[in-house]
TrEMBL record:
Keyword annotations from UniProtKB, A to Z: Cytoplasm, Hydrolase, Protease, Serine protease, Signal
Quaternary structure annotation from Swiss-Prot or TrEMBL: Homotetramer.
Listed EC numbers: 3.4.21.-
UniProt family annotation: Belongs to the peptidase S9A family. Belongs to the peptidase S9C family.
Signal peptide: 1-22
Protein's name according to its UniProt entry: Prolyl endopeptidase
Domain annotation Acylamino-acid-releasing enzyme N-terminal: ranges: 102-510
Length: 862
């Protein structure tokens, strides 16, 4: 229920598809980023020198008195945490135009408790090992930079503060003093050619959630943009507002607190200000904006039902917009809105709306009389994927002789689990006709139940092809020769780049390693970004002990996939120090200090025998002594922990000297659909047995100290931590939980995803998406039985609980109840309360505080 999304949340112990984390040291002669030099103010210098002088005391903190040493070890922890976090980079966007790779990196800044954005321009032809130009910091008001297809123009979306507005009656509560502005830069981004302030009477906030709902697309002729933005609410006012304020015809007295009218119905966790999204076009020369009205669920003022319309792009002919529409509940087949974030399998379809007439009108700088009275003559919208229960991520190939192909991800079966295997469909798009509904649809890659069932021989980390597990295709996913689609997909615990033949659907993993020219590591996670003009590709690579690097596959990489693809490192980015008392020249790379290995364990229980794919991180230089182990089951449960760099586990392993075992128990994505679905209905049983089996396999291999095993997890991972310390109190000695589900019977009535409680307790098909009712007496009893709270009497493990008080996914009352129960039993426990955090606990300072506390909890008890 909570995978990790690059832009939204970064530290969940769940699927990690942060495309990122790079660092390197500039040669000493090279002037590093200014932030490195701005870091030591006077007071922090004192702290740092005190820290250095007291180094000897710190050395024996574990043996001497805890008092003074504890303070020093906290400083040491803070510094070490800062090192691993500074090394990480989240790329929020990467594109290639005119031979230059432009990457935006989001870096945590603990001092200011915020994330900062840095822009790197890296010439592809450069022979430097490091980027030639130092990064430029982007103001936080910049929300997106979208290059046109040729790279001649860049659309920059900014969110500007405009100070308090007057005329209170019609204000929207979430967006009072902000406005959105599109700036159009031409000449390759050198010239500011136009600035369009988006009028608030046209729409609300532009959706910049590009990982999911959002999208901004250019027409092929680069004259217009399409984007997704919040539809304006009807105007409301208080019963007691003065009669003179505003136009009384439009304003509804006393409706300002009514859900679905003055109060937008939101999409739960992380989407508190998203209610209904519509599509809008902007002509970048005239500056005129118009709403696309020929869309499903279009009404001018209703807040009931409708659709969220997102991921828009133009068709290759530029005459239609193609987009994904999600049923917004209260209409269609879904009476209750369910939380959207981390829930990738929600009902949605792909639609196409002709817009030639709209674009023609917007190109005219003046609204003429004809336009005022005549309705638009654009034809009605069409649903391109009528039989799919979910379909998303439409992508076009470049047109060849008037024909283009449309690829998209879909699933005809369903969405009971929040993550799952997707099929890839490709259909011809007739440029003349505008759209095509292909009745005989070509299923290029179907949903895979069991790994290898398609007969594909090749293995990745000991697992044959498990099907496609991805959220979206990249914009540029068709190879220039039109023969392949290239994408990254979860394949066991590895994020793997694969080529998919458009002729026969054959799926082949692309093997390479940016850190060496020959051979490859089975473990590295890699992401496909885009093709180069010559037919090569831009890619990223990351490993648990190596933050992300940026590289290039050479143009021959698709020719002979039986060999290693020739590759080249483009950039190995420096750490950007986050805290003022950190070491002046952090050198994380030389001291990564741990190795990792992939471990497949055969499950003993359950009908579906697919390996449990775990990742074991082992601290180096432990000598004769075997390290203690922290077992980390991910959240979800239908997500996957991949072999990418995650600062918090680097911190625990390298600095805390704990072995870390990430367990992709049954139910995880990347192991086929059958194994995934086999968990639904057996949560708290089969997933627990898998975690225990994986733990025992590491103990049996003699790799860790079997007397010192702890467990740590968030959300469903917290649910598993609770089960493990209750069902296996002699194996798991210490626990740390983050927003844990502890009692499904009480969670079901307060979470934004009640469907999850039913499906995980009773199995697929149990929740009726076209109906809603509260749980029955019998259901509440079953849910209680499947919860950690049912095993409370056996718990003896000291347990740390961390809560984000704004969590709407797993309400904090879950953790609070569990905390009080442990305290009453006199089990050592501690509650961390983060008032401003939600489910992810991802505000920079809170995240840091939480992980340092977690390490110290294990230091104290394990
Ligand atoms: C810490 O103690 C060890 C062993 O007593 C010693 O070799 C080492 O030099 C000490 N380190 C510091 C920084 O004092
Ligand atoms: C789901 O609910 C709808 C509306 O109440 C009902 O018509 C339908 O039969 C239900 N489906 C199942 C499988 O119970």
């Amino acid at each position: 229920m909570m995978p990790n999304r690059s832009w939204l949340s970064l530290v969940l112990a769940t699927a990690n598809f942060i495309e990122v984390s790079g660092f390197h040291r500039f040669p000493t002669s090279f002037v590093s980023h200014p932030s490195t030099f701005a870091i030591l103010d006077a007071s922090n210098r004192r702290r740092l020198s005190a820290f250095i002088e007291n180094g000897n005391e710190m050395n024996d903190s574990s043996t001497s008195t805890r008092g003074n040493a504890a303070g020093m070890s906290s400083l040491k922890d803070a510094e070490a945490y800062n090192d691993v976090v500074s090394a990480a980079v989240d790329f929020t966007s990467i594109y290639l135009r005119n031979g230059i790779v432009t990457a935006t990196r989001s870096a945590r800044d603990i001092d200011s408790n915020s994330r900062r954005l840095f822009l790197y321009n890296i010439p592809l032809q450069s022979s430097h090992r490091y980027p030639m130009y130092p990064p430029i910091e982007l103001p936080t008001k910049i929300k997106a930079r979208i290059p046109s297809p040729s790279g001649y123009k860049i659309a920059v979306l900014a969110e500007e503060d405009v100070g308090p507005t007057s005329g209170g009656a019609a204000k929207s509560s979430d967006n009072n003093n902000k406005r959105h502005v599109f700036e159009i830069w031409t000449d390759g981004g050198h010239r500011l050619a136009n600035r369009v302030v988006l009028p608030t009477d046209e729409h609300g906030s532009v959706c910049t959630d590009f990982a999911w709902f959002g999208g901004i697309g250019w027409t092929p002729d680069e004259s217009a943009l399409v984007y997704s933005a919040e539809v304006n609410k009807p105007k409301t006012k208080s019963f007691f507002a003065s009669a003179s304020s505003g136009n009384t015809d439009e304003i509804l007295g006393g409706w300002q607190h009514v859900l679905g009218v003055g109060k937008g119905e939101d999409w739960g966790e992380k989407y508190a200000t998203t209610s209904l999204l519509g599509l809008f076009c902007l002509n970048v020369e005239s500056g005129r904006i118009g709403r696309v009205e020929n869309v499903p669920g279009f009404t001018t003022d209703s807040r009931e039902g409708g659709y969220v319309l997102g991921q828009p792009i133009f068709s290759p002919c530029g005459t239609s917009v193609v987009y994904t529409g999600w049923d917004a509940g209260a209409g269609g087949g879904m009476p209750r809105r369910l939380g959207a974030v981390y829930c990738f399998q929600r009902p949605c379809k792909i639609y196409s709306s002709p817009v030639s007439e709209l674009l023609r009108r917007l190109a005219n700088p003046i609204i003429d009389d004809d336009e005022r009275i005549a309705p638009s003559s654009d034809a009605p919208f069409a649903c391109i994927t009528p039989i799919d229960r979910l379909a998303r991520s439409p992508r076009f190939s470049k047109p060849v002789r008037g024909l283009s192909k449309l690829a998209y991800l879909c699933n005809t079966k369903g969405f009971d689990t929040h993550g799952g295997c997707m099929a890839l469909h490709v259909t011809d798009w007739d440029m003349a006709k505008g759209y095509v509904i292909d009745e005989s649809r070509d299923v290029l890659v179907d949903v895979v139940q069991m790994p290898g069932e398609r007969g594909d021989e090749m293995e990745v980390s000991g697992i044959r092809f498990p099907g496609l597990f991805l959220h979206q295709l990249r914009d540029d996913c068709f190879s220039p020769d039109g023969k392949y689609i290239v994408t990254s997909t979860e394949w066991g615990p590895v994020n793997k780049i694969v080529s998919i033949s458009l002729v026969d659907g054959a799926v082949v993993p692309i093997n390479f390693d940016l850190t060496r020219s020959e051979g490859f590591s089975d473990g590295a996670s890699q992401q496909f970004i885009c093709f180069t003009d010559e037919g090569g590709a831009i890619v990223t690579q990351s490993e648990p002990n190596r933050p992300t690097i940026l590289g290039q596959l050479l143009p021959t990489f698709l020719d002979d996939t039986s060999k290693y693809a020739p590759s080249r490192l483009i950039a190995d980015l420096s750490a950007i120090s986050s805290v003022s008392f950190s070491s002046f020249e952090p050198d994380v790379k030389d001291s990564i200090g741990f190795r990792y290995q992939l471990i497949n364990t055969q499950p003993v229980h359950g009908d579906v025998k697919v390996p449990i794919g775990s990742i074991l991180l082992l601290p180096e230089g432990a000598g004769e002594e075997k390290p203690p182990l922290i077992v980390v089951p991910h959240g979800g449960p239908h997500t996957c922990m991949s072999t990418s760099y995650v600062p918090s586990y680097s911190f625990l392993c390298k600095h805390g000297r704990y072995a870390i075992l990430h367990v992709n128990f049954r139910g995880s994505t990347g192991f086929g659909q059958a194994a995934l679905e086999s968990l639904a209905g057996s949560a708290g049983t089969l997933d627990v047995l898998d975690v225990v089996a994986a733990t025992n396999s590491v103990i049996d291999a003699g790799l860790i100290d079997s007397g010192r095993v702890g467990i740590c997890g968030g959300s469903h991972g917290g649910f598993l931590a609770g089960h493990c310390i209750g069902q296996h109190p002699d194996l798991f000695k210490v626990a740390a939980m983050r927003n844990p589900c502890t009692n499904l019977a009480s969670m079901v009535t307060s979470t934004d995803i009640p469907d999850w409680c039913y499906v995980e307790s009773f199995g697929s098909g149990y929740y009726n998406f076209s109906d809603f009712r509260p749980p029955s007496k019998k259901e509440v009893c079953v849910m209680w039985d499947k919860s950690p709270i049912a095993h409370l009497e056996h718990v003896k493990a000291p347990t740390l609980i961390a809560l984000g008080m704004k969590d709407r996914r797993v309400p904090p009352s879950q953790g609070i109840e569990y905390y009080h129960a442990l305290r009453a039993k006199q089990v050592p426990t501690k509650l961390l309360v983060y008032d401003d955090c939600d489910h992810a606990i991802d505000l920079v300072m809170s995240e840091a505080d939480h992980w340092i506390n977690t390490k110290q909890w294990f230091d104290q008890y394990l």
